[in-house]
UniProtKB/TrEMBL annotation, chains A, B:
This is Transcriptional regulator. One of its GO terms (molecular function) is DNA-binding transcription factor activity. The keyword Metal-binding does not apply. Pfam families: HTH_5. Gene3D superfamilies: Winged helix-like DNA-binding domain superfamily/Winged helix DNA-binding domain. Keywords: DNA-binding. InterPro entries: ArsR-like_HTH, HTH_ArsR_DNA-bd_dom, WH-like_DNA-bd_sf, WH_DNA-bd_sf. Residues 1-94 form the HTH arsR-type domain. PANTHER family: TRANSCRIPTIONAL REGULATORY PROTEIN.
Length: 107, 107
DNA sequence: GAAATATGACACCAATTGGTGTCGTTATTA
DNA sequence: TAATAACGACACCAATTGGTGTCATATTTC
């Protein structure tokens, strides 16, 4: 029955620079607790926590409690949806179209 | 100096479903005036026009006036930025890595 | 056991977003 | 030339977003 999460638009989750940075941090570190992630930003813990909640609702992040801390882990799979979406548009930035674009810009 | 537009985050531009649908309509039709695009949605003309403005600021759309109408055209190139960004994360949803991840977890 | 740490859960707030309706102007068309 | 069509530019509004600070609680650590 594939009981999946992702109750939130992946595109929207990824639209925020802070959240993209969070994904990157988790990509590089495998697993990180909230307080370490927070240390990488200027905003407060609550704000970072909210961003992580958004990522979690999009399925891009998984969290587990370890003692008093909550550790976060990347789950990049949902990004596949965006990748597939973009794939459709790749044909539009090939040679032929880019020539047309130059023409429009040089008027 | 490559005087480029794109004063707006492409990720944010693409985060809205209405704007994604607009891109798709333009992809299929090459060039469309505002009133025809508007006809595809339930919202009013002003709303659609605003969405197109966002896409334009992100460089995803080009417009030109023809008579009394403003025609819009797709420019998919800026999507390349997202594609490249995603490429980095592709390694995280491939089989091999997920197996490796399990191994690391079971030590 | 007392103090410090890490966090969740709120309440709160300003700015942004996504929509509306209206008015004025420029092109078409009858 | 008079009506209509397409649009830009506003003013306006409710809901969402992205941030803050505070308080309560569970876990470590001294």
């Amino acid at each position: 029955m594939s009981g999946k999460h992702q109750e939130r638009d992946v595109y929207a989750a990824v639209a925020d620079p802070t959240r993209r940075k969070l994904l990157r941090l988790l990509a590089d570190a495998e697993e990180l607790p909230l307080y370490e992630l927070t240390a990488q930003f200027q905003m407060g813990r609550t704000a970072v926590s909210k961003h992580l909640a958004v990522l979690k609702e999009a399925g891009l992040v998984v969290d587990r409690k370890v003692g008093r801390e909550t550790r976060f882990r990347l789950n990049a799979a949902p990004l596949k949806e965006i990748k597939d979406w973009i794939a459709f548009y790749e044909k539009f930035w090939t040679e032929r179209v880019s020539v047309l674009k130059k023409m429009l810009e040089e008027e």
